[in-house]
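Reviewer 2 asked us to include a model.

Predict the structure of this chain.
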Amino acid sequence: MKKIVLTTFLFSFSAFAQEVAIAKASVENLPESYGEYLTEFLLKNTEHAAPLKKGSEPLYVIYPSLSWEGKAYNICIKVYKANNLYSSSCVTVSFAEDIYQRLKTLKNSEFFNLKEIPQNTINIKVKITTNPQYDKIKLVSQRGDSLTRYVSVAKEGNGVNVGSGFVNLNTIVLDEDASAKVFKLLIENNKIEKVIVE
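Predicted model (C-alpha cells):
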C-alpha cells in the first residue's frame, strides 16, 4: 500500500514539476545579453522549471522582465496560470550585485522558488587604457546601469577575465560583453571584492 501511495505521489509531483515553464526574459534599456543570462539563471535555479517551448501549454508560465529606469533595475516576475494572469511581483535594486537577494524575496513555494546559492567573493580582471586615479571604483555598463558599488582596485592579482572598459573619473565603463559577463557573475551571487586592472 505504501508503495502505491509513494508511486502516486511521485507521479503527481513529477507531472506538476513539468507544468512550470519559464519564458525568455524581456529586456529594456539594457544589453540584450542580460536577458539571456537572467533566463539561463532562472532556469538553472528555479525549482521544477523548464524552458517554455513553442506549442507547449504548461499550467504555469513565468514571464521575467528586466529594465533600467530612473537609475535602478526593475525586475518583474509575471506568472500566468492556464493563460490567465495569476500573479505579478516586481523588485527594484540600484545595483546588479543585489539582484539575487531581492529575487529571493519573491519566493512562492507554489511555483517560484529560487535555490539557495552561497555567496562567493571573487576578483575580476578588466583591460583598460588608462589607470584609475582612485583606490575604489564602481562598475557600470555603456548603457549606464550600475553593476557594483565602489570596490577596490589593484594592478596585480588573479581574477576572472571579463573583458575591457575605460576609466571615467571614479568609474570603469565596461563594454557590452564585459558588462554582460559581470552581470552574470553578480546574479549568480558572486561578490566582487577587487578589480584587477591590466
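Residues 1-18 have pLDDT under 50 and may be disordered. The chain has two domains: 13-104, 120-197. We have added this to the supplementary material.
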